[in-house]
Amino acid sequence: MTDPFLGALWKIDTAGHAMVFLSDPLFAGDPVNPAFTGQPFGIDGIAFDKDGQALVVANLDHGRIMRIDLDACPPRPEVLVADPRLKGIDGIALDRRGTLYAAVNTQNRVATVDKHGAVSILVEGSPPFDSPSSFAFGTGKDDKRTLFVSNFAIVNSLAGQPGHPGIVSLPVQTPGLPLIGDDLN
Q: What is the C-alpha to C-alpha distance for residues 22 and 60, in angstroms, rounded to an integer?
């Protein structure tokens, strides 16, 4: 679990006990230039890689994506990309080819980051977006190439405008990583 305020990754065991798994300065928010006014936000989005051997995490304030090899001793974050187009990154998801999808809620966009760290803007603007926040790939036979995006609706709300929370669906070329226990079909 990510903790954007303390800049830490937490681990929760099966009995429900929480402990800090990893803390690093790369996880901290930016108190000088936060993505949202007032409060710095650090590490936020989190996903497992295709092999389940590494975590991929995002830092909201710094527009930074990091990889953490879980087999390393000790595990340390490695910066894969830091880009101003990702400042405000919240949720992340990976497809089966290793493309990372980034919900950049403060900039009202969905971006992609390929295996080589190249950032592209997939889609942006309002409507249909109002602070995209989280993702889920479809898991049904006919929607595995659909990325469902939740709208957090915070940016408009902070600006004193009506928020429009909801779910938007986007067609994508490659299915998302399967859920644990799901197959690759």
A: 17
